[in-house]
Design a protein that fits this description.
With about 300 residues, the protein is α+β, with helices and mostly antiparallel strands. It has one domain: Double-stranded beta-helix (4-Layer Sandwich). About 25% of the residues lie in helices and about 25% in strands. The strands form 4 sheets. Strands 1-2-3-13-5-15-4 form a 7-stranded mixed β-sheet, covered by helices on one side. Bound molecules: N-oxalylglycine and manganese (II) ion. The site of N-oxalylglycine has 10 residues, from β5, β14 and β15.
Amino acid sequence: MTPSITPANPARPDFVGVVAGVDLSQPVDAATAAAIDAGMDRFGVLVFHGQRLTDPQQIAFSRHFGELELATGDLAQGEQRRLPMEVNDISNLQRDGSVMPREDRKRLFSLGNMLWHSDSSFKPTPAKYSLLSARVLPTGPGGNTEFADMRAAWDTLPSDEQALVRDLVCEHSQIYSRGVLGFTDFTPEERLKWAPVPQRLVRRHPVTKRLSLFLSAHAGGILGWPVPEARALLRDLNEHATQRERVHAHVWQPDDLVIWDNRSTMHRARRYDATQVRELRRTTVADVAPTLEQAA
Ligand code: OGA
Ligand code: MN
């Protein structure tokens, strides 16, 4: 059966769809995967309710959309990891299952997710899709994930601004995004591993051909521009892109799976009571090439 997809908000018929009629714990056939992919092209973000997934089920479903990234952007590596390398640990849990203390280095690093970003824009080839599965949610308010439509951000940019930014290339690094929050506690190895990578500021979606602004908290400079001028422009663009009419707040329910297209959206986590467990797990489909190697 082909899944049905309806807009989450009828006032925004092309941003955020809700999918019904598919069980992602079961193998999905090629026609169903293609229907979901077409939904991604249209909506940029898809929400699936009631999907209780194991890690292998989440990984198997994610592979329909391309090669998976490994979680090399996580602070915890090797022995410190709780999860398989294909799964990003989006939780506040330690290896023994207890909640991280307030000062935990991994926790403070993960607060970078509260800044508007596009996943893995700090990697030479950034992310295509992210698939985030809600396993345990805090009771009480907060902890939403918000999404901004970067196609709409481009479309609504005044034409002189479009001309100004059209061919700019930004430098992206996790060292920069964490620095915005005052997190500077990196080892020399981490600084080397996360050295800045170039990304186009304006990119074209390979299927829909729509242009979008490729912003992210990781963007800390523009090639050829003085740093303060670059950061001032990037701030302005971020402000434009994240106006409320272009933002959707996803309020998590247990067993939700949300997929977003990092090429055409930004997202951020919202604050919650960090003494409670919040456990989500993310698989990430890699894009096919660095943005500079893709058609402008
Ligand atoms: C992510 C992310 C936001 C959240 O998983 O990439 O940014 O709300 N998560 O946890
Ligand atoms: Mn993210």
